[in-house]
Specification:
about 35% helix; elongated
Amino acid sequence: MNESTFRIALLTMTAVALVAGGCSKPPPRQEDTAVVNLRKIVQAFDAADYKLHRAPKNEEELKRFFGESGASGDPEQYLRSPRDNQPYVIIYGSPLDSDGRDIILAYEKDGLDGKRYVITLSRDVKLMTDEEFAGAKFASGLKPSKKK
C-alpha cells in the first residue's frame, strides 16, 4: 500500500467513525409534567367545546372530557401541578382562541422559584416570572387574587 492509498484509507475510516459516532441520538427530552398537565387541560377544553359547542363551565364538566382528549387515568392527576402541589387555576367558560396568545386560560397557583407555567387561549404553554404574570391578561378579564 503506497502512502497515497494509506491516507485515503485513513481518511475514509475517520469519516466512517465520525458518521457512526454522530448517528447515536440522545434520549428524547422529557417534557415537564406541569406542561403535560396544562396541555391535557386544554385538550379536554377542546373536546368539551367540540361536543358541547361551548367551553366547559366548571371542573366537573371539564373532567368528563379528559378521556375523549386521549388522557388516561384519573382526571385529578392532570388538575394539580407537581411543582407547587396546588390545583391549577382554570378560568372556565372562556372559549379557546388562536388569537389569544397573550390571554391566560389556566396557570399554576404558586409555581416554583418565582416562575409559573401558564397556558393561553391559543393553547401555548409559557413559563412566566411573577412580574410577567402580574401584568398578564386573563380569560374573561379575570385577575387572580393577590397572594396573602
